[in-house]
Specification:
The structure is a single chain. The protein is built from eight helices and 14 strands. The chain is α/β, with parallel strands linked by helices. The chain has two domains: about 160 residues, Rossmann fold (3-Layer(aba) Sandwich); about 140 residues, Rossmann fold, CATH 3.40.50.2020. Strands 10-9-8-11-12-13-14 form a seven-stranded mixed β-sheet, sandwiched between helices.
Length: about 325
């Protein structure tokens, strides 16, 4: 006898409620109800207000700092497991702590590996995320990982700009693979920025590998934190004769005075997704929603159909 296929349920972590509502609307069902009890010392306890027994559950929440965001995801996964959910998919549009993906100096943690183990220990049966800081983080998991690419949502916007003499640029050597993938699809040239840092988030020197004179340049990166690299790269490219410089960054962390740096830079615009909610709006920042992409892939996961058609590159 074939078991009855129950409809899935979607729930939002508090830090990603706005994005989760968009995903739920695209998916075609309302968000499930979660009630979170807060204690005076800062502890909190999320509780599902409806049954999840025997169902596939999608828990939507980006895990950017503070650590409470990761903790909320872990608690919700554990609650779903103890409530007898059949499958538990942690939908993490932004996978936090991913910059700690290796030991780059003695006596440091590999934070991304630790987070992977915590998610699995809590009871996640599947992970869904977008533009990991390093592709190999998928190997930290023993469970299936759906690693989506933001190029799927950004490429139509780039094409709509109809830019002549387009050049794709990477703000550092580590992002060259991503830049080459974009340039291959768009049949454009590539420029790489070579930078040296004094310490984290502080650049000592930057140089360009390639020509930008007379070009419309688009910098591509997986995240923007302080904005220092992109602002400096844009200013340098304009000095070297670029017609315009835009930047595409999937995850808008935008900490410190990043908003001011972007607004005061030579960037024409910064295009980001809504994996992390903006703290405020500025005229140079444009948001392209990732909700349709996640909703479509979640449908395919529920229906056990291939998601490979969602990958432009």
């Amino acid at each position: 006898m074939t078991p009855i296929q129950l409809s899935p349920k979607l729930f939002a972590c508090s830090q990603s409620t706005e994005l989760a509502e968009k995903i739920a609307k695209e998916f075609g069902i309302p968000l499930g109800k979660v009630n979170t009890t807060h204690f005076s010392d800062g502890e909190f306890q999320p509780a599902f207000e409806e049954s999840v027994r025997g169902r596939r559950v999608f828990l939507i929440g980006s895990t950017f700092p503070t650590a409470d965001n990761l903790m909320e995801m872990l608690l919700m996964i554990d609650a779903a497991k103890r409530a007898s959910a059949r499958h538990i998919t942690a939908v993490m549009p932004y996978f936090g702590w991913a910059r700690q993906d290796r030991k780059d100096k003695p006596r440091v943690a590999i934070g991304a590996k630790l987070v992977a183990k915590l998610l699995e220990a809590a009871g996640a049966t599947r992970i869904m995320t977008m533009d990991l800081h390093a592709d190999q983080i998928q190997g930290f998991f023993e469970k299936p990982v759906d690693h989506l690419f933001a190029s799927t949502i950004f490429m139509p916007y780039i094409e709509s700009l109809k830019l002549d003499n387009l050049t794709i640029a990477s703000p550092d050597m580590g992002g060259s693979k991503r830049a080459y993938a974009y340039s291959k699809y768009l049949e454009s040239d590539v420029v790489i920025c070579y930078k040296q840092r004094k310490k984290a988030n502080i650049i000592d020197h930057m140089e360009l590998i390639g020509e930008v004179e007379g070009k419309n340049v688009i910098l591509v990166d997986d995240m923007i934190d302080t904005g220092g690299t992109l602002a400096r790269a844009a200013n340098l490219m304009i000095e070297r004769g670029a017609i315009s410089v835009r930047a595409i960054c999937t995850h808008p962390i935008l900490s410190g005075d990043a908003y001011e740096k972007i607004q005061n830079s030579k960037l024409t615009e910064l295009i980001v997704s809504d994996t992390i909610p903006l703290k405020r709006q500025v005229s140079k920042i444009k948001v392209v929603s990732c909700a349709p992409l996640f909703a479509d892939v979640m449908h395919k996961v529920q229906d056990n159909t291939s998601i490979s058609g969602q990958f432009l590159m």
